[in-house]
Amino acid sequence: MDDLRAKYIELIAKAGDEATLEDLRVKAVGKKGEISLQMRELGKMTPEERQVAGPALNALKDEINTALAAKKAALADAALDERLKAEWLDVTLPVRTQRRGTIHPISQVTEEVSAIFADMGFSVAEGPQIDTDWYNFDALNIPSHHPARAEMDTFYMHRAEGDDRPPHVLRTHTSPVQIRHMEKFGAPCRVIAPGRVYRADYDQTHTPMFHQVEGLAIDKDISMANLKWVLEEFFSAFFEIDGIKTRFRASHFPFTEPSAEVDIQCSWVDGQLKIGEGDGWLEVLGSGMVHPKVLQAAGVDPEEWQGFAFGMGIDRISMLKYGIPDLRAFFDSDLRWLRHYGFASLDVPTLHGGLSK
Ligand code: DAH
């Protein structure tokens, strides 16, 4: 018994982790452990022997259990000490008075747009920025000979000779997300898809990468009237001005029929643009009723379903709302510009808390 005690006390002292301790517990006092096996021998002893050996074995078992528990607690303490040493904090350091980073106006506006549409039951869908020309064009009723395809100033991905995968492009608009979303989730649906888009174009009002937000609502009886209501609701919330009027002008897009370009009401007073008043109009987006061929390409039955879609420039509505004069500055990473036009990082826009402060 003394040998057993010495052996286990030493092993327990040396154990470096909980798994080793558990292993020792099983070997010593587990059902088939060494001490338990000895206890089974008690039956073969004379009553006199048993009176000595029984209590001694029980005492040994208690001693081992106590040693195991003490070691387990010690290991836990050591682990905590280790963690506290790694996670120290110097509370005597001075507070940072100047905020370091800001939220980019594009990110802020994307959050604002998402919050407003979420309130109307739209969820956010995403698609890849590198997509096949089928999703970007064909599925949207823009076949290869179509002039819209040439007008888009598309960036094509390089293809090695003999590569027979379908051609890939940097998406020229967010409209392919319509197809991907309907393919995956079918109808009915109500989504917006904000994100980056690309066109080979660079001047004062164009950058090769910019941002759009797509809208799509499909159901049994959705009409242009629903589209008009949703957009007026959106613009009033976005510009934080009640009752902004919109004007629909007949237009043409391959993926909608009928199609409309949408203007919002504005005035120019002393060279100052004011939104939501006056008798001027400002073009802000393209829209229409989703073309039956587009529904079909996405696996949605046009005999059963119909709905509207729209596409809007996020950069443009950001400039309008926050009085940002130059588009290219959005992507210059000039810290002075970012500090001036950026938003505090913890002011998450919500409808109840205020979109912009
Ligand atoms: N995809 C168009 C563009 O990039 C914008 C657009 C117009 C999207 C009409 C739509 C739509 O969903 O219905 O210029």
Automatic annotation (TrEMBL):
Signal peptide, first to last residue: none
GO cellular component: cytoplasm
Listed GO MF terms: ATP binding; magnesium ion binding; phenylalanine-tRNA ligase activity; tRNA binding
Compartment annotation: Cytoplasm
Keywords in alphabetical order: Aminoacyl-tRNA synthetase, ATP-binding, Cytoplasm, Ligase, Magnesium, Metal-binding, Nucleotide-binding, Protein biosynthesis
Cofactor note: Binds 2 magnesium ions per tetramer.
Single GO BP term: phenylalanyl-tRNA aminoacylation
Record's catalysed reaction(s): tRNA(Phe) + L-phenylalanine + ATP = L-phenylalanyl-tRNA(Phe) + AMP + diphosphate + H(+)
Positions of the Aminoacyl-transfer RNA synthetases class-II family profile domain: 107-349
EC number(s) reported in the record: 6.1.1.20
Keyword set includes RNA-binding: no
Cofactor(s) the protein needs: Mg(2+)
Annotated InterPro entries: aa-tRNA-synth_II, aa-tRNA-synth_II/BPL/LPL, Phe-tRNA-synth_IIc_asu, Phe-tRNA_ligase_II_N, Phe_tRNA_ligase_alpha1_bac, Phenylalanyl-tRNA_Synthase, tRNA-bd_arm
Family: Belongs to the class-II aminoacyl-tRNA synthetase family. Phe-tRNA synthetase alpha subunit type 1 subfamily.
Subunit record text: Tetramer of two alpha and two beta subunits.
Official protein name in the record: Phenylalanine--tRNA ligase alpha subunit
Highest classification ranks of the organism: Bacteria, Pseudomonadati, Pseudomonadota, Alphaproteobacteria, Rhodobacterales
